[in-house]
Amino acid sequence: MTDTVRDQAATLADLVDLEAYPLDQPEHPRRAEAVAQAQDGLRTVGCAVIKDLIRPEAVAALDREIVERKHTTHYSTQVINPYFHVDPNPEYPDDHAVNTFLERSSGFIPGDSWEASSATDVLFRAPEMASFIAECLEIPELHCYADPLAGLTANILDPGQQFTWHFDTNDFAVTVLVAEADEGGLFEYVPGIRSAEDEGFDAIKAVLDGGRAGVHTLELRPGDLQIFRGRYSLHRVSRVPSHSRARHAAIFAYTREPGVIGRVERTRQLFGRVLPEHLAAEEARVRSDELLD
Q1: pLDDT digits (tens, 9 = 90+) for 137-158
Q2: Is 181 within a domain?
Q3: 179 and 247 in contact (C-beta within 8 Å)?
Q4: The predicted structure's pLDDT at residue 7
Q5: Model-level pTM?
Q6: Does a structural domain hold residue 60?
Q7: How many whole angstroms separate alpha carbon 185 and alpha carbon 188?
Q8: How far apart, in whole angstroms, are the C-alpha atoms of residue 101 and residue 34?
Q9: What is the CATH number of the domain that holds 139?
Q10: Which of 7, 87, 126, 176 is at a distance of 20 to 30 A from 67, taking alpha carbons?
Q11: Residue 61 domain flag
Q12: H/E stretch holding 207
C-alpha cells in the first residue's frame, strides 16, 4: 500500500499479491494450484498456510491499524480448561482433561473497532477472499460472520501472555499473522484429536500435561494466511516472553450460512461484553454437536 492510497479505501490489489495469487481470476492455474495445496493440507493435517499472500506494505498497514486500535483491546487473564470452562466439573476426576486448567492471557480488538474503509476490513470483506477460502475448505460458499464483535478481530499477545490449549466453537478459523514475536508466540496444534463422536479425553490430557505426541508447530511469518480446523484440533499460541515484542494476528471469521451470531458465554470471555444481537441469537440457537465446546 503506497503513501498515495494510504488515506483511501484500499483495493484487493493493494493488499494481496494478485500476481502470485490471482484470487480475482477463478480459472487461473496459479490460483488453482494454491487451492489444491490448501485442500491437501486441510484434508491431511487440518491446516493450510498460504505463504506471503498479503503484500509486505499491506502487512505494515494492517499492523498500523491494529496499533491505532489497540486501546480498544479487551484483555483478560483466566485459568481455563480446553473448553473455555473456568469451574471444575464434579462429574469427572480431578486429574481429568475437563478438570485441567491452564492460564489464558491475551487480548482481542473487537469488530466494532474497524471502519469499513480500513484495509483490514476491506481484506476481510473482499468477495474474492471468501470465495478462495471456501474452495480451500471444499464448501460451496462462505459469508462474513455477522457477529458485530467477533466477525473481524485482532488477537493480541503482549509480552508475557499466552493463549493456552483450547478448541474453537466454529468448524474453522482464518487468520493472518501481522506481527510476529521476537521469540515464542508459536502456533501449535494436534489435528483431529477429537471428533463429533469421541471427545478424545486421554490424548487431550497427555498434551495438557506437556506431552508432544502429535503436536505440530507452524513457522508462520507476517503476511501468511492460515486456514485451520479448530473445532476438532487442540491448539494454542505459546507464551510470548517478557523481553519480546508483541504478536498481532488478524482474525477473519466466516460462516457457511449468513447471519450467524456468536455464543454469549464465549463472547463475554473474549470481549468483556455482549450486545442485544448475542442475547437474541442465544435464545434461538440449535447445537450442531454434543461436544463440551
Answers
A1: 999 999 999 999 999 999 999 9
A2: yes
A3: yes
A4: 53
A5: 0.92
A6: yes
A7: 9
A8: 38
A9: 2.60.120.620
A10: 126
A11: yes
A12: helix 201-208
